[in-house]
Amino acid sequence: MPQGTMLEGKVVVVTGAGGGIGRDIALQCAAQGARVVVNDIGASVSGEGGDAGPAQKVVAEIVAAGGQAVANTDSVSEVAAAGRIIQTAMDTYGRIDGVVNNAGILRDRFFHKMSLDEWDAVIKVHLYGAYYVSRAAANHFKEQGSGAYVHMTSTSGLIGNFGQANYAAAKLGIAALSKSIALDMMKFNVRSNCIAPFAWSRMIGSIPTDTPEQQARVAKIQQMTPAKIAPIAVYLASDAAKDVNGQIFAVRNNEIFLMSQPRPERSVHRSEGWTAETVASHAMPALKSGFYGLDRSGDVFTWDPI
């Protein structure tokens, strides 16, 4: 494990850190000098079950490499439990400097077949979870006059994807949550940014591999290891990123993207105002060339990762 000092003296909470992207972020935070709270409930990708083993195993890896870490197995989806995650940092290390909201589950289903439970469970872990954990840290950040949030969003929400209305809604909500935190807390020297990761993990292990084309696609995705995401997460949690706030980045193998945020594209005006008829005859024909297609993430990121 390469050693550095970018996070020396800092305490960082990483949720969903028992495997995948979260594990690599926890490992690299520790390698850069942070004391890490490794949170993971040890559940399946769909959120069932619980096993203290994954979080404790990552802690053991960090300690074996000479770092400091403590395990926590509370759920981000319940407000009291999320509070205990942050309290673990306070009780163990006496402070909190960074929060990486990485915990997530999937319950993919086409919208017209999606159940209330499939909707609710995903929103609770991703959107409520990011809010609960962030809110629990907010007063500590305010009082000490510093802190950094790193949230995981997704191109499924920023762009679109099939069968993920629950996940996409939560992930786009997280991008708005992050921007609001950045605006509300910048006066306390607190920053909030998002990462949309491309990486092979359990979360996307259900992608079908029935055809040669699908197998080739999965083979490419498998090259995008979780370790590729960790460097920017470590950077965003560090003081080196003191001027980076309210941004959305995407990471795909060796590429880092700054993602756009919604802004007006074009406008059309009538001095006498609009009727439904003139909207149909004037406004829509004038605006139509700027309409967005029904793109999915794969339609926008069409080239092979470097």
TrEMBL record:
SMART domains: PKS_KR. PANTHER family: BLL2957 PROTEIN (PTHR45024:SF3), DEHYDROGENASES, SHORT CHAIN (PTHR45024). It comes from the Bacteria. This is 3-hydroxyacyl-CoA dehydrogenase. It comes from Pseudaquabacterium pictum. Transmembrane segments: none annotated. Residues 10-206 form the Ketoreductase domain.
